[in-house]
Amino acid sequence: MQIGFIGLGLMGRGIAANLARAGHRMRVWNRSSGPVAELVALGAEAVSAPREAANAEALFLMLSDDDAVRSVLIESGVLASAPPGLTVVNLATISVLCARELAERHRARGIGYVAAPVFGRPDAAAAGKLNVVVAGERAAVQRVEPLLKAIGERLWPVGEAPERANVVKLAGNFMIASALEAMGEACALARAYGIDAATFLDILSGTLFAAPVYRNYGALIAAERYEPAGFPVRLGLKDVRLALAAGDGANVPLPLASLVRDSLIEALAAGAAERDWAALAQVALRRAGLDRRTR
Fold first, then answer.
1. What CA–CA distance (Å, rounded) separates 158 from 116?
2. Of 129, 149, 169, 238, which is the active-site residue?
3. ω into residue 50 within 30 of 0, thus cis?
4. 238 catalytic, yes or no?
5. pLDDT digits (tens, 9 = 90+) for 97-121
6. Which sequence spans correspond to the domains of the chain?
7. The domain at 167-294 falls in which architecture?
């Protein structure tokens, strides 16, 4: 299949590479040229504008936020010039309002639109082991399902309204952020009594919280290893804010999300914008006067 791919960041480059390795013909575009060269080495064709990437049967987007998606799809003319038969697969974590707007714009143009945000960090993206949450009209989903199976170990369909997939992604990221906040505060409490984070988190992630989020992020917190970031604080803050906006839109109170948002803002203010969002643990330690980095 002829595929276009736009957005070769930490996640996008691994996803695009798996599509290339699966034997699909690819045109790729990215704002910076370094990641493009990596895909060209795998047989992809570099193009000079987003509209050229859209000259395909399926166009994948892995962009950072609403503004970036609108800039590429709408302002650069991709959607206006999209060829008949194109299906757009949006992997980005975007707002409910943006998801609804994009679905309507694609419907008006007769272009297929599938929301397919993913759960997993860059290493999972590179290994093709993402969990892909999928929503869109059935025919559009069926057209791109083989492609989605090439990038993930499991697909999770949640209906035909594309925003449903984005709500699942936002709610899931809110849960991860809440777990990070809880681990950070709990580690601060343990450290105040002379128990190091590695010992504490080894006990908890091996018993009551034996789940990937606690094990994987717990290892980062225990080692205070927040760079390079798999998912930076600034994007975590963006997603928690989007979860709060989704709650507002449906009159769903999210008091814990408000607390986590404030902690992420505090991390941002302390210069951690590009650190992994596991650095929420530093916020808890700093509040307790226990952060060795600030002594």
1. 10
2. 169
3. no
4. no
5. 999 999 999 999 999 999 999 999 9
6. 2-161, 167-294
7. Orthogonal Bundle (1.10)
Quick one: tokens of 11?
């996640």
Q: What is the pLDDT of residues 210-257, one digit of tens each?
A: 999 999 999 999 999 999 999 999 999 999 999 999 999 999 999 999
Query: In Å, how far are 34, 77, 232, 279, 295 from 286, measured between CA atoms?
Result: 37, 47, 19, 11, 10
CA–CA distance, 9 with 95 (Å, rounded to integer)? 20
The secondary structure element, H or E, covering residue 11 is helix 10-21
Report the percentage of the chain scoring pLDDT > 70.
99
- The dihedrals phi and psi of 118, each to the nearest 5 degrees, come to -125, 150
In angstroms, rounded to a whole number, what is the distance separating the alpha carbons of residues 268 and 60?
Answer: 30
Is the per-residue pLDDT at 294 higher than 90? no
Q: Tell me what the mean pLDDT of segment 122-131 comes to.
A: 97
Class of 2-161 in CATH: alpha beta
- Match 């599938």 to its residue by tokens: 114
The two structure tokens encoding residue 44: 């992809």
Residues 220, 205: Cα–Cα separation, whole Å: 13
